[in-house]
Amino acid sequence: MKTYVNFIFFLVLLVPFGYGQFTPPSEEMINRSDGYIGHEDALINDVIKLEFDKKNAKITFDFISEETNGTIGGLDFKISFNPEDPDNAYFKGTALVNTLDTDNFIRDGHLMWEKFFYKKKYPKIAFESKEVVHFGDNNYKVIGDLTIKGVTKEIIINFTLDITKNLLGKTTIHTSDFGVNIHDEREKNKLNIIFDFPILK
Q: CA 108, CA 125: separation in Å to the nearest integer?
């Protein structure tokens, strides 16, 4: 009995010094959608993802052998990107083939034909990332699948981040790899593509 009383007395002494005051997070807190569980050290949950201006996002291209440049629109994309956590980033989106614009309506009309982009059967161009890698400073490589005219190929887009302005990406493809044969020679089908995603302030 004496031992039991001493134990109770010991517990009473501990309480004022902060012992025994830890309250585990409730199930509601653990399951919060933002991942926060009320612990100051949970910094990974405080990382803020960048938000992009979809209205002013642009994709431009340069068809090298023809010295022809243009744009494509109808962009529908989702980017989940935090520069401090690239392992969990992803890029996914589509563009509408019928928005291809090279500032020549006759040429643009030809590009819709079956021989080229075949708009009637393949109205969208799609991209989905598989991996995002940080390459020092503000440079990132986004590796993913590009689908044009029903053909899917892996490409790498090199992005540079200007945290006050935009996320700017560049890649080079050969349209003939996707069944769009502007010329017979592969090298003459080289296309530079630039992605400009403005950051919302």
A: 16
Q: Are residues 52 and 34 in the same domain?
A: no
37 plus 67 within the same structural domain: no
Same domain, 30 and 69: no
Question: Same domain for 61 and 149?
Answer: yes
Phi, psi angles (nearest 5°) of residue 35: 80, -5
Task: Give the containing element (helix H, strand E) for 131.
Answer: strand 124-134
CA 170 to chain centre: 14
The rounded distance, in Å, linking the Cα atoms of 148 and 13 is: 73
Kindly report, residue by residue over 78-118, the tens digit of the pLDDT: 999 999 999 999 999 999 999 999 999 999 999 999 999 99
Q: In this structure, are 92 and 182 located in the same domain?
A: yes
What's this model's pTM, rounded to 2 decimal places? 0.76
pLDDT tens digits, residue range 18-56? 444 444 555 554 444 444 444 433 344 444 789 999 999
Residue type, 90: Y
